Amino acid sequence: MSDSSDAIRVEIRGRVAWATIDHPPMNLLGADLLGALLGLVERMEGDEDTRVLVLRSADPDFFIAHGDVETIATVPTDPVAEAQELPFTHRILERLRRLPQISIAQIEGYARGGGSEVSLACDMRFAAREKAVFGQPEVPLGILPGAGGTARLTRLVGRARAAEIILGGDDFSADEAERYGWINRALPPDELGRFVARLAERIASYPALTLLEAKRVIQGISDESIERDLLEEQRAFDRLMSDPRSERVARMARFLELGIQTRVGERKLADACETLGET
User: Fold this and answer.
1) Could you tell me the fold of the domain covering 2-190+208-272?
2) Contact 12, 50 (CB under 8 A)
3) Angle at the Cα of 27 (from 228 to 140), degrees rounded to 5?
């Protein structure tokens, strides 16, 4: 059985849902893709038969590139009230994290910024060696990871490594991400799909109630205060978006002028982060 949205196609095979992101030119995380993710989450929340969700990309070069910098750059710098509840993006990704299904991200290309953060909301992450690239480039752009990158990544890799990733703004290979605990495993590209399929089908063969209870306990141990931390992340993000001392408008303009938000330019994003403050 299959279904689709404009940006995510869903195919159900047995008790596994295969959700394929297909949002050219490079799966930017903007309103359209967030809307498709919301639709996927809503569908899975109401699906009592599916036990595993695999999130992957139709584009071999991009899982999800990152948030749409062109859109973020146009957000006014007007002061905003301190957030008292989680905003739209956080709510979607929290619902993804809390799905009754076991969620697996299969990553074969770039997964920076919002792309990394979507994968962090999944239960497991597996990536292709020499193809997958991870990064959190928000700080060089004058903001910070605003979709769970501080709260979830720090829980996975620890404070020191999270500081290196977030404050350094550099790229990390699949092997480096595996060593840091960012992902579960880095696998050869020709083995990744088979590995994920076998694992997904294996898990899907187990009792649904057992999977649900086990997932609930695992998440409860590691994420007891995550909503508090996500809210603090949002408040810090809002301050950077509205503070007149922030450099984010100029840095994002420079990012776009350099042509980084293109399929070719994305490959040089990490290097460009070092020059965004130059005039």
Assistant:
1) 2-enoyl-CoA Hydratase; Chain A, domain 1 (3.90.226)
2) yes
3) 60
Structure-token pair, residue 181: 């605990």
Check pLDDT > 80 for residue 202: yes
Mean of all residue pLDDT scores within the chain: 93
pLDDT in tens, 244-279: 888 898 999 999 999 999 999 999 999 999 989 886
Cis preceding-peptide flag for 100 (omega within 30 of 0): no
Could you give the residue numbers annotated as active site?
A: 117, 138
With H, G, I as helix, E, B as strand and everything else as coil, classify residue 117.
helix
Q: E strand or H helix at 105, and its extent? A: strand 102-107
Burial class (CB in 10 A: 0-12, 13-18, 19+), 217: exposed
DSSP label at residue 138: T
pLDDT digits (tens, 9 = 90+) for 216-249: 888 887 766 888 898 899 999 899 988 888 889 8
Tokens coding 200: 């997904």
Classify residue 13 by its DSSP letter.
E
Tell me how far apart the alpha carbons of residues 263 and 145 are, in angstroms, rounded to a whole number.
Answer: 22
The encoded tokens of residue 102 equal: 């076991």
- The domain spans of the chain are 2-190+208-272
- pLDDT score recorded for residue 269: 94
Asked if the model's pLDDT at residue 103 lies above 80, the reply is yes
Residue 4 predicted with pLDDT over 70? no
- Give the chain's radius of gyration (CA, Å): 18
Length of the chain: 279
Question: Within 13 Å of residue 106, how many CA atoms lie on the same side as its CB?
Answer: 27
